[in-house]
Amino acid sequence: MLSAIVCFQITEGSAMYNCDNWLEGNIAKKLFPRAKVTSQNISSLIQMLGKQDLQINFFKSYIAKFFSDDQSVLIDSTALPSAINSSINAFGYSGGAIEENVTCLMLVDKKSKLPIYFRAVGGDIADISSLKTTVAEIKRLGLKTESAILDAGFCSKENLQFMCQEKINFITRLPKSHKVFSTLVKEAGLMEEGENAIEYGERFVFIKSKKINLYGNEVCAYIILDPSKKSQDTTFILKNRLDSKLTKDDKKEIDEKIKNAGFFILLSRDNIEEKEILPSYYERQSIEQVFGFAKHNNSMLPLRVHSEQSIKGYLMLVFFALILFITMRQKLKIPMDKALLILRNLKAKIFDTEVIVQEMNKKTKLIMDSLKIIMPTGSGI
After folding, report:
1. For the chain, what is the radius of gyration of the CA atoms?
2. Which of 102, 107, 183 is nearest to 138 (CA)?
3. pTM to 2 decimals?
4. Is 258 left (phi over 0), alpha (psi -120 to 50) or beta?
5. Which residues pair with 92 in a beta bridge?
6. CB atoms within 10 A of CB 168
7. What are the structural domains of the chain?
8. β-bridge pairing 145-150 and 71-81
9. pLDDT confidence of residue 372
10. pLDDT (tens digit, 9 = 90+) per residue, 132-160?
11. C-alpha angle with apex 349: 347 to 354, nearest 5 degrees?
């Protein structure tokens, strides 16, 4: 049943109540003959997958088998809009607006890009409050975290001190709201000099680095100026703001924003070469891709379950589908959606005791070879 639903999520990305109709006209009915995928059965499965003991046992085994060494992880969260009646559902920021949602926090392995762990967190709990609990949980599950790349939402005095205490080599972005941001920009002085220029992709940025004592710990600060972003930010700040009615404090605030325009600052516990700091930090885009796959390819949204245990069970189901989806995607030489469309053309004839797969065209054979599926013409399933 679980295998059938995971296949349904990957190939269809549709609401779960469609799974029963899908199974009736799909080879999956022969591959998983004992699968019962009525809405009631799926609800029962999701409820079971949400049990704490089951999830703890799964993650202990999963981590021990695939992530036994010290790991470099990517940590991020995403808001899942929801109007369900649950204790974990709460008002929070989602898509720049305040609405009811559940937060899904996820860890992804930096090397394999596979998801390692997830947590369902109340929508009203900020990222800065969830890091300690997450690290405590994964330690109990056997994951050894050597380094972590985190979004700015996790950057706080308490979290920075905690990661230094735990000896986790982190990279994170310092929000402009932190008092130390303006101080570091001011101390950097003139940035736009040739010796500070670093090529990144099709653009150049200016980078200065220095070791600083931040909240009682020595960290490396990378002050980065993006000239093109500076121009955009300055235009945005000045647009419709040059008004004679502005107070003295308003003008002072505008001046401060202009001084910081185009700047961003990365913090690292480890000493990283200036030319490597941006590529290292932007590896976190891998976790944004994982969330993208979950939401758009694997039917994470909208949430349709109605209890905290069901939410965790549903996310567990999505987690299973993500592991398979990402593994397949990495093996293929073409996009997953295109591969799935091609595979839809593969037909089979069903006999009483056997399924005969029909001849494959060249594209289908290439996909099968990439996925290491051996299925000669005329073979039975």
Report:
1. 25
2. 107
3. 0.81
4. alpha
5. 99
6. 18
7. 1-49 (no CATH), 50-173+268-328 (3.30.420.10), 334-381 (no CATH)
8. parallel
9. 80
10. 999 999 999 999 999 999 988 889 899 99
11. 125
